[in-house]
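== Sequence and structure of one protein ==
=== Format: two labelled lines per protein ===
==== Data for this protein ====
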Amino acid sequence: MKRLQLLITAFGVLLSLNTFANALVSIKGKVVDATTQAPLVGATLYISDLKASTSTNSNGEFTFNNVPAKGKFLLEVRYLGYKTSSKLIDLAVPQDISFALAPSVIESAEVVITGTPFSSNNKTNSLAVVSVSRDQLAQSAATNLVDAIAKVPGVSQVTTGGAISKPTIRGLGYNRVLTMVDGAREEGQQWGDEHGVQVDQFSAARIEVLKGPASLLYGSDALGGVINIIDDLVPAEGTYNGNFTTNYNTNGGLTGSSLMMQGNTNGFVYRGRVSYKNAYGFGYKDHVVPNAGFNEINTSAMLGLNKTWGYTHLSLSRFATNIGLVEEGPDADGNYADEDGNIISNSDAKKRSLNLPFQNINHYRAALNSNVLLGGGQLKSTFAFQRNIRKEFEETKDEPGLNLGLNSYTYDVKYSFANNGVWEPTIGLQGMYQTNKNSGEEFLVPDYNSNNVGAFAYLKRNFENGAINAGVRYDYKKIDGKDLVNEDGDQVFNAFNNKFSNVTGSVGFAFDIAKNLNLKGNIGSGFRAPNIAELGANGKHEGTFRYEIGNSSLKQETSLQFDLGLTYQAENITLGLNAYSNKIYNYIYLSNLNSETIDYTGEEGDVETLPVYRFLQTDASLIGGEASVDFHLVKALHFENTFAYVKGTNNATNSPLPFIPAASLNNEIRFEPQIKGLNDSFIKVGLTNVFKQDRIDAFETETDGYTLFDAGIGTSFKTKKGKFNVWVTGQNLTNKLYYNHLSRYKLANIYNPGRNVSFGISVPL
């Protein structure tokens, strides 16, 4: 708690900077139609580096208040039906800021902030980045945040029912994909299978998915990519508003609701949100999976200042969930039975109260985010404290069997030097200190302390038609596993001490090589130190179907990836191609060698035979690519197509790597009619085609391909408070029986969810 007090003290110090602020400054401008010069009413403008936003009035005019008197920042404007536009503005130079937006049926790339220290247009970003908007997240009918982005080309999910989804990017997941929340890396025992990302699904304004090694800017665990969950920019000066969103899914009876209120008074900004989700077990065909439900409640608050010296925001949140765990799959007739062998009816399986076993997760987060304008440059910092408490209840609801408490203290400080928009140099220092402690009667990983630190230097050179970038980084990590003897005097864990270090580098480019044609490429190395489970696991816990044994002699993983992308964007068509080759040295993977098993004795003395999985290492290669084609035969009709494929190979044996997602092809036709009095209306139908996965490791089984049919309809209308949205989305409407290759329930012969129809509304307040 002392470190949490330090965070709050630091917040108070930064608040005092307001005393030294310059006089308030305002900037004004106008947004018009490039063809007719008519003002565009309700266009939204953003300065991401200042976390500031505003919109145009009835004359197409906009005003930013409480902005710095000097500094160069990227200003972005978006308006539906027009190309997104951005320009670098110098606040020290008086100017008439105007945007003339060109009508477009093509949704152009948004400004992204994930891959570079400065906000930049995606066309000058050498890494592959995809952005998913709040509307796309809401209308996906997803059961959790990762499920909502699972159709992004190159992104897959390891699922355990509807509540638990873990992201994989280009065949890499778990500790190889880093999740960023409130500017801080999420730390919540992410090495485990049986829980997902501990973030409020409703809180994300958008999600940016960075595909490929990002160790240069993010350090260890970003070897495969980054999922950056971005919260809302603060509302315009003098604005107070809110939103209520709710949805219902017919499959699993999922109800989800979220209430948010926020405001901005003379640069003092604030936001509060509370969200709740509840579901019983998901179903397929005529069966409902018992004890597969969950409930979740999330609360969060943000207080901060947006002033002429920059901004500082303090965010506090609590994520709390209870998730039922399924012990056994159906019998030969497809029915589920209780411990006494009695068939569980669908009506009983639809009860929302959870039975044993289940898990309870509480994740507390405090993050202090600041951007202080200093010496003509920007000093960005994030200091965060997280406490993750994970409990598994097996025999009684009073005492957990497994009880893990993880404390994480992270810091990220970057200074971007003053520049004229041509040379953009940045240096940074990042680190994390962790303590993990067992408090239950069962043990899976040992108590441990971990400390890692990294420093980097990054340089970007902008040109009229593109940019090049390069950087270098050094990381050091130390992890100390503790000795542990249980109550019976048995040695559960032996103490170990491991140290890892690595130098990482990256070089990339992005250029418009012809009209409407953009080429980008990147060569980057990645680094990942083994996680605590890989080093020290020794046990089985509820919700899994295996016994894991770690290896404290594991080496660090390093990688070298080549990435090349080509984008063509014309008036009625966009084409995108990405290809990559990733060589990973000392790749760590799980394997059930020689079908090894162990007789495991539970708390009640019952014995079950479990397969033993051990952590091994080899050199590995992953090659693959993504493709997208978006046709607009007429203005209101979109035909979108995406394809993704990845092939993983164990170089030592020339055999397939385990847990590699199958190739997929997604097709969607979306009709957006213009209806008087309504906005953003759409009707869509789509096919999700997943191919057969027969490139499998020896202990895996093949997974047949399948095709799912989806559809949706929605619209919105304006009110005095904003847009009122309503939508209906259907998934797997043919009620197809199928297994996803990365579903952990496949091991128990439990199918993926069947037909689902989701109803949602979003009400401005």
Q: What stands out?
A: The longest strand covers residues 607-634. The radius of gyration is 26 Å. DSSP finds six helices and 47 strands in the chain.
